[in-house]
C-alpha cells in the first residue's frame, strides 16, 4: 500500500460522533464524511443537529443528552438502523462546567459536569464495544482536553472529569487490545470558535480581569502563541483511524500548540 493510502481511513467506515452538531464534533463528522465514511451524530441541540445534517446530506443524526443512559440506548437503535453496525466511536461530548473557587460551586454543577464529560464516555463505550468487537477495523477515540494533563485552577470539575477520560482510555486500550480494538484520546488545547470565545469571557468575569487580556493570555500560554482549529483536531481523528495508525493504542495526544500551563 502506498504511503498516501496508509494515511487515509478506508472508505465506508461506520462512524458515530457524540455531540457532533457543532464545534469539534461537527468538524470531525464532516471530515469522516468527506473521506467516504458513513457518519451518524448525536447532539442535545436540535438546531445544531439540523444545520449539520441539512448542510451535509448523508450524515444522519439523533437528539440525545449524552449523560442520560436511556438517550444513549436510543442513539444506538438509530445507529443500527442507519449504519447497520459501528467501526469508529468518537466520544466527543463535553461541557465547560462552572468557573470559580471550589467552595462556591454548587454540587449540582459539579455533578452535571462529570455526568456529561465522563459518565457519557462510559455510557457510549459500553454500548459501542459489542459493535466494535464485530468490526474489521475498530477504533475508539475519546475527546479529552489539555486539562486532561494540566491542573486548571477555578475549573476543577472540568479538569477532574477530563483527567478521568485519560484513565478510561488507557484502561480500555489494555482491556480491548487483545481483541484488536484500538483506544486513543485526543487532547485539544484552546480551540478557535464560539465556545472558546465564551470560556475566556467567563473566566475573565470570574477573576475580575479584562476579557481581551484573558484571550491574549490564552495565546501566550502556548509555545506557538496561537490557538488550534477544530479541523486540526479532526485531522488527527482521521489519522488515528487510518492504516498508518494501526499500531497506535493507549495514546493520549495533545493538539494544543504545546500549551505550557493553564
TrEMBL record:
GO terms for molecular function: oxidoreductase activity, acting on the CH-OH group of donors, NAD or NADP as acceptor; quinone binding. The keyword tRNA-binding does not apply. One of its GO terms (biological process) is fatty acid biosynthetic process. Keywords: Oxidoreductase. CDD domains: SDR_c (cd05233). Pfam families: adh_short_C2 (PF13561). It comes from the Bacteria. InterPro entries: NAD(P)-bd_dom_sf, Sc_DH/Rdtase_CS, SDR_fam. Belongs to the short-chain dehydrogenases/reductases (SDR) family. Coiled coil: none annotated. This is SDR family oxidoreductase. It comes from Ramlibacter monticola.
Amino acid at each position: 500500500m502506498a504511503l498516501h493510502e496508509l494515511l487515509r481511513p478506508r472508505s465506508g467506515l461506520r462512524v458515530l460522533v457524540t455531540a457532533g452538531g457543532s464545534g469539534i464534533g461537527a468538524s470531525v463528522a464532516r471530515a469522516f464524511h468527506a473521506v467516504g465514511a458513513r457518519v451518524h451524530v448525536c447532539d442535545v441541540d436540535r438546531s445544531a443537529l439540523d444545520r449539520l445534517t441539512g448542510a451535509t446530506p448523508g450524515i444522519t443524526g439523533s437528539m440525545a443528552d449524552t449523560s442520560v443512559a436511556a438517550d444513549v440506548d436510543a442513539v444506538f437503535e438509530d445507529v443500527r438502523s442507519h449504519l447497520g453496525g459501528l467501526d469508529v466511536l468518537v466520544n466527543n461530548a463535553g461541557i465547560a462546567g462552572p468557573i470559580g473557587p471550589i467552595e462556591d460551586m454548587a454540587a449540582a454543577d459539579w455533578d452535571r459536569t462529570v455526568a456529561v464529560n465522563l459518565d457519557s464516555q462510559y455510557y457510549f463505550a459500553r454500548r459501542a464495544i459489542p459493535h466494535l468487537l464485530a468490526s474489521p477495523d475498530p477504533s475508539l477515540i475519546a475527546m479529552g482536553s489539555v486539562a486532561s494533563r494540566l491542573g486548571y485552577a477555578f475549573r476543577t470539575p472540568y479538569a477532574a472529569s477530563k483527567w478521568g477520560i485519560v484513565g478510561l482510555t488507557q484502561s480500555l486500550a489494555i482491556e480491548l487490545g487483545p481483541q484488536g480494538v484500538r483506544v486513543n484520546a485526543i487532547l485539544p488545547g484552546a480551540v478557535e470558535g464560539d465556545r472558546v470565545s465564551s470560556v475566556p469571557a467567563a473566566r475573565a468575569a470570574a477573576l475580575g480581569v479584562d476579557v481581551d487580556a484573558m484571550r491574549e493570555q490564552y495565546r501566550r500560554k502556548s509555545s506557538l502563541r496561537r490557538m488550534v482549529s477544530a479541523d486540526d483536531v479532526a485531522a488527527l481523528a482521521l489519522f488515528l483511524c487510518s492504516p498508518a495508525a494501526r499500531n497506535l493504542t493507549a495514546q493520549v495526544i495533545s493538539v494544543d500548540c504545546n500549551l505550557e500551563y493553564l
